[in-house]
Amino acid sequence: APKPQSEKADSLSIALPLDSLNNNDASPSAPFSSLLPHRHRERHHHTPLSHTTLALFDHRNRSVGEGAMSMSSGGPSAPQRQPSMGRRNISRAITMRTDGYSGEEEGPIIESELVPSSLAPIVPILRAANEIEDENPRVAYLCRFTAFEKAHTMDPNSSGRGVRQFKTYLLHRLEKDEKDTQRRLASTDAKEIQRFYEHYCKKYLEEGLQTRKPDEMARYYQIASVLYDVLKTVTPDKPNSEYDQYAKGVEKEKASFSHYNILPLNISGPTQPVMEIPEIKAAVALLRKINNLPTPRPDTTNGPQGIDDGPIVRDLLDWLWQTFGFQKGNVENQKEHLILLLANIDMRGSGNVHQGERQNHMIQRDTVDHLMKKVFQNYISWCRYLHLESNIKIPHDASTQQPELLYIGLYLLIWGEASNVRFMPECLCYIFHHMARDLYDIISDRREESFDPPFRREGSDDAFLQLVIQPIYNVIHNEATMSKRGTVSHSKWRNYDDLNEYFWSKKCFKQLGWPMDPASDFFADPTKTKNDIERHDHSMSRRRMSKTNFVEVRTFLHLFRSFDRMWAFFILAFQAMVIIAWSPSGSLSAIFEPAVFRNVMTIFITAAFLNFLQATLEIVLNWKAWRSLVCSQMIRHVLKFVVAIGWLIILPVTYSSSIQNPTGLIKFFSNWIGNFQSQSIYNFAVALYMLPNIFSALFFIFLPMRRALERSNSRIVRFLLWWTQPKLYVARGMYEDTCSLLKYTTFWILLLICKLAFSYYVEISPLVGPTRTIMFLGRGKYIWHEFFPYLQHNLGVVFTIWAPIVMVCLMDTQIWYAIFSTICGGVNGAFSRLGEIRTLGMLRSRFEAIPTAFGKHLVPGHGSQPKRREREKEDKNLHIDKFSDIWNAFIISLRDEDLINNRERDLLIVPSSAGDTSVFQWPPFLLASKIPMALDMAKSVKKRDEELRKRINQDPYTFYAVIECYETLLNILYSLMAETSDKKVVDRIRESLEDSIERQSLVREFRLDELPQLSAKFDKLLTLLLKTEEEHDTTIKTQIANLLQDTMEIITQDIMKNGQGILKDENRDNQLFANLNLDSIKDEAWREKCVRLQLLLTTKESAIYVPTNLEARRRITFFANSLFMKMPRAPQVRSMMSFSVLTPYFKEEVLFSTEDLHKKNEDGISILFYLRKIYPDEWKNCLERIKFVPKDEESLKSRMDEISPWASYRGQTLTRTVRGMMYYRRALEIQCIQ
């Protein structure tokens, strides 16, 4: 492509020969970035500060296998703005295609979505062209021309997949735009781009700095960088220092609007609240101490020239970025990761520090040491296992913890960029081991102020990814290809564990080296044949590295091989029980008889045979994978087979020597032994045979000794343990504590005792007598002689009788395990208080204790505590208030999920106006029907107040309901009164009532049987108040006034025996209760009081079954029951350990689109129709929540924004996962507020 013409030229011409687009040269191998699906990513949710670590992947970090896009030469990688998508289909949109443009796309074409993965760097240029298309089409044309020129420079032969089609499309687009677009600001293209660049920066970067959001500013700065790159392309021979200086400032400011996860480290403008946390500020300050570090020499071949003198190094991780060639996005991710780790550990270590002491906070030295110990725990263990000296060395003259932070940052950066290699932790240790040595050499040599970085590739900002991670990833990719999706035998390909085990030996240092040798056997391509290797590499012939320890062979024989000790125990126990039962006495005490004991000792011969069978299976099952095993594994299998054969010969021969009056073959062996014949030789042989098992039992009992031996790195210990297990780095000494082991052992000992006793007394012993009788009977004549052949002693019949018994003896352990696990689980659950609340009835009966249990387990304790009794009194109300917030949030979440309706929500929720009454306001579902019951009690009591008080106090919820109803009613009446005289009337009624209660004359002075009439009037009044929306409606005021007047007349004339004079109008110009104050109608808290009071007055037995939805019931009972389980007291939120929630995400629909929900299958059923029939009550609740009554199916399409999430929560697993993930954040926010 020719360079653009000078300013005198009228336009830019394209004179690209078409043969370059139609080149038929063979395409090279697929690019490295296309080895994995580029749209695969892991999405994550960050919980609040003290509960989060940084997630693994981010849009700024291009991991191996992801088709991430890098920025053009105008600056670092740009934020990726996703194109617009369908209204409800919010699955990840295509941002880059591996196959390019096919010509079959319908609808409007967005060039940035058609770019093949091999041309990724031109994507930001095309996006900028789309952004400024409407504002200046000519400049957009120049941007596309620059993109075309870069694409042709990157792939002049169009050999990449989809490149030829994309170039053809873009060429035709440029030819069309060259004719259709006109210059608006100047007469030439060079001046046009210069003036537009100046205009764009002034309009979007200077004027909108304080008004626009950071995301918008980041996009504008990105476009400005692209425009400057285009400007340099259009005017290559006319340097302009003014624009260069301005672009330099733009690039520096651009970094201030880069994307971030939690911590806005580089964002300019007002400081974010998270950055004001003292521990965060201290961690940031600690990382930014970069004094006394040598400077890496910049790469003159990478990055734009004339814009910046060099990359900005603000902290230690930026220095590591320049030193080892990590990706910038990875550096930003791990920078936040490290800061949050330091802050979180420091928070937990500082405890309850006074706020004033935290203002000038500094990260403690113990914090860095603790983090370093945790991060390098596996690396230090790996070094000890291989008898290596750790390369984490601190210079002697280090006065700060700068070296420690550099090592931690280096490991996190390696881990963050490792991609699939992350599944090989010892491989990461190998990489870190060598890079830590390079780091120490750099920071310990202070003779020079600058140095050459160890990793650098010309024109690349991902040197570590390409030079270190890519070769290892290629091995993983080739092995995965070799497996053919797991259909190939496991012995022919290596998985992650097999590759990782390569780094469990010092041989990796000799064979692989550093920098890693591409000719090493580790990198041998498994897909190439031996002839291919010899053809392409004449200098040496290499063999692919084999597996180390384990090769999987799939067969049903694993049923015995994997559980050989279990089968051996059952077979030997069955043999011993049969021998004892066959003795003359048939009792267990017969084992002490010499003859019986000698016969029981034959079980060791059987054990030797089973051991021989096991050793044989080891060889047979590994025969196909024999070549894949290492030499030590082969030797172990062969020696075990030889030893098994030896014991199979020794034990029978020595046993035969101890038998009195031998005959036949036994006599031959006895004579052959000769002088060695002795009664105890077999016992000695058995003792020697059992010696390894005795040592195993001792190590099992003394668990600390066993754990210490297995974790030992001593060569002698590892040689001795080699016989029992192969040389392993992982899973050494992983045992439970001694107490758990004792409980586990006791459980199985009791189970086996019961199983063996049952087998002996119920199955084996009763069958011995009939078996003897059958064996000594004469031969019978059987019609079915095929099944009962004429064998000696009727052995066919004996076999038929004993076969079921043998099967039951081998299999009934599962039955006994079910019985014992049920008993032990029930006892353990009872002591752990599991299932204490299982039904709604139990929930209502125990609800009063729930706030106390909540405060005991989930409310953090404080350092200074008062006396126990005083603390219980003070904390009771406090726990109730805190519990009400959690309970309300829980109930509201049920309503948001449409599991309950509005009425059920009002019945379950605790009012936000708690504290307006003298008693705690329990949820109305607990107080349902309490007021009607109290009214019935009042009607039935005719004589004494004491009887009424006693009956009301029998049920505490009835007492709470009566007091709350009375005080809330007074509060509402006072809020409606505008005149002082009206308030005086209410005061007189209240004083008369309270005075009669104090004098215990309520029954005598009030007609309590008229209270239901008063309750009905109040119900009508509350209904009218809740329907009122405007306080200036005269008709509504009149109706409310009339109801109040009727209510007062009922109170003073029908209920009060001495209340006739209370309502007299003396010297008044208007009627009582005619002038009302309705200003409170719009107050939500006041309306909530009215709703709750009406529920108390009218709700009857129906509230007992609230909620009706089974899922809502399950969640409520589970939530309440969990509070009574044994659990440690929750610490303060700032003292909790950090955690992250990761959600796998690959080409999944997050929300159903409108088309998906209404698309019918072959039966004419749509997804929405199906979900409405499956969840009818929840659909009804959804319509109530969105306040919509559909007329027909078509009317639903107008409210799909609300309906689509409802359907997705019930039909999409990922959507429910994301919602549950976000509940972590809501729960922690509530706890933080408390």
From TrEMBL:
<feature type="region of interest" description="Disordered">
    <location>
        <begin position="1"/>
        <end position="22"/>
    </location>
</feature>
<dbReference type="GO" id="GO:0005886">
    <property type="term" value="C:plasma membrane"/>
</dbReference>
<protein>
    <recommendedName>
        <fullName>1,3-beta-glucan synthase</fullName>
        <ecNumber>2.4.1.34</ecNumber>
    </recommendedName>
</protein>
<dbReference type="Pfam" id="PF04652">
    <property type="entry name" value="Vta1"/>
</dbReference>
<dbReference type="GO" id="GO:0008360">
    <property type="term" value="P:regulation of cell shape"/>
</dbReference>
<dbReference type="InterPro" id="IPR023175">
    <property type="entry name" value="Vta1/CALS_N_sf"/>
</dbReference>
<feature type="transmembrane region" description="Helical">
    <location>
        <begin position="680"/>
        <end position="704"/>
    </location>
</feature>
<feature type="transmembrane region" description="Helical">
    <location>
        <begin position="741"/>
        <end position="762"/>
    </location>
</feature>
<dbReference type="InterPro" id="IPR039431">
    <property type="entry name" value="Vta1/CALS_N"/>
</dbReference>
<feature type="transmembrane region" description="Helical">
    <location>
        <begin position="638"/>
        <end position="660"/>
    </location>
</feature>
<keyword id="KW-1133">Transmembrane helix</keyword>
<dbReference type="GO" id="GO:0000148">
    <property type="term" value="C:1,3-beta-D-glucan synthase complex"/>
</dbReference>
<keyword id="KW-0812">Transmembrane</keyword>
<comment type="similarity">
    <text>Belongs to the glycosyltransferase 48 family.</text>
</comment>
<feature type="transmembrane region" description="Helical">
    <location>
        <begin position="566"/>
        <end position="584"/>
    </location>
</feature>
<dbReference type="GO" id="GO:0003843">
    <property type="term" value="F:1,3-beta-D-glucan synthase activity"/>
</dbReference>
<feature type="domain" description="1,3-beta-glucan synthase component FKS1-like">
    <location>
        <begin position="402"/>
        <end position="517"/>
    </location>
</feature>
<dbReference type="InterPro" id="IPR058851">
    <property type="entry name" value="CALS1_helical"/>
</dbReference>
<keyword id="KW-0328">Glycosyltransferase</keyword>
<keyword id="KW-0133">Cell shape</keyword>
<dbReference type="Pfam" id="PF25968">
    <property type="entry name" value="CALS1"/>
</dbReference>
<feature type="transmembrane region" description="Helical">
    <location>
        <begin position="596"/>
        <end position="617"/>
    </location>
</feature>
<keyword id="KW-0472">Membrane</keyword>
<dbReference type="Pfam" id="PF02364">
    <property type="entry name" value="Glucan_synthase"/>
</dbReference>
<feature type="compositionally biased region" description="Basic and acidic residues">
    <location>
        <begin position="1"/>
        <end position="10"/>
    </location>
</feature>
<feature type="compositionally biased region" description="Low complexity">
    <location>
        <begin position="65"/>
        <end position="79"/>
    </location>
</feature>
<keyword id="KW-0808">Transferase</keyword>
<dbReference type="Pfam" id="PF14288">
    <property type="entry name" value="FKS1_dom1"/>
</dbReference>
<dbReference type="InterPro" id="IPR003440">
    <property type="entry name" value="Glyco_trans_48_dom"/>
</dbReference>
<keyword id="KW-0961">Cell wall biogenesis/degradation</keyword>
<feature type="region of interest" description="Disordered">
    <location>
        <begin position="65"/>
        <end position="85"/>
    </location>
</feature>
<dbReference type="InterPro" id="IPR026899">
    <property type="entry name" value="FKS1-like_dom1"/>
</dbReference>
<dbReference type="GO" id="GO:0006075">
    <property type="term" value="P:(1-&gt;3)-beta-D-glucan biosynthetic process"/>
</dbReference>
<keyword id="KW-1003">Cell membrane</keyword>
